[in-house]
Amino acid sequence: MLKISLQNLKNSDYHKADIDNLVKSVDELIYEIRDISHQLRPRILNEFGLVAALKSIIDTINNQNNLKGYLTTNYVMGTLSKEYELNIYRICQESISNIIKHAKCSEFFIQFLSDENQLKLVISDDGIGFNVSEYLSEGRSSLGLLNIRERAENYNGTMNIISAPDEGTTIFIKFEMEKIHG
């Protein structure tokens, strides 16, 4: 639409009102693009780093729900590339979304720990749990769990789920540092 308007403007006597409308359209487009880009990589992640972004998600959940989240980490900012940080952020975001939708829990915990050999992400809740082997064998795996597994595997990570009815759920994700920095 913008291109057509510009072509029409080019082929005719231009009017101030037409130009004003185009400027307004461009401004709206810029705003929409900026909004989309922030959704792709949240501003807090860019400005303050991964730990602050994760704390922000958890603080929001703690303030809006009858649910308490906790973060334990020894992560040093800048250890991972921005791409890896975004991946970890999205894994945590998807996990928290699954917890809110399905776990019926009162607490959840995220442990994000790294050493010279591995990066470990452990996400657990005290919710209703489920039978993992039955769930996976019936092909009922949720889109959320599939997204988490894909994100882990796309970055050479592994994911394991431990859960049982009435015993909560724990997701273990490991990344080997040599594959991260290799």
Can you lay out the helices and strands and say which pair or pack?
Elements: H1 2-10, H2 16-40, H3 43-48, H4 50-64, E1 68-73, H5 82-103, E2 107-114, E3 118-125, H6 132-137, H7 143-154, E4 157-163, E5 169-176, H8 177-181
Parallel strand pairs: 1-2
Antiparallel strand pairs: 2-3, 3-5, 4-5
Helix pairs in contact: 1-2, 4-5, 5-7
* Rg from Cα: 22 Å
**Quick one: biggest sheet?**
5 strands, mixed
Taken from the alpha-carbon principal axes, the silhouette is elongated
N- to C-terminal distance: 46 Å
Strand order of the largest sheet: 1-2-3-5-4
Low-pLDDT stretches are none
The number of distinct β-strands equals 5
Number of helices: 8
| Overall pLDDT | 87
Give the helices and strands as they follow along the chain: HHHHEHEEHHEEH
Q: What portion of residues belong to β-strands?
A: 15-25%
Estimated helix fraction: 40-55%
Count of the separate structural domains: 2
Q: Would you tell me the structural class of the helices and strands?
A: alpha+beta
CATH topology (level 3) name of the largest domain:
Heat Shock Protein 90
CATH C-level class of the largest domain is: Alpha Beta
Going by CATH, what is the homologous superfamily of the largest domain?
Histidine kinase-like ATPase, C-terminal domain
CATH architecture of the largest domain: 2-Layer Sandwich
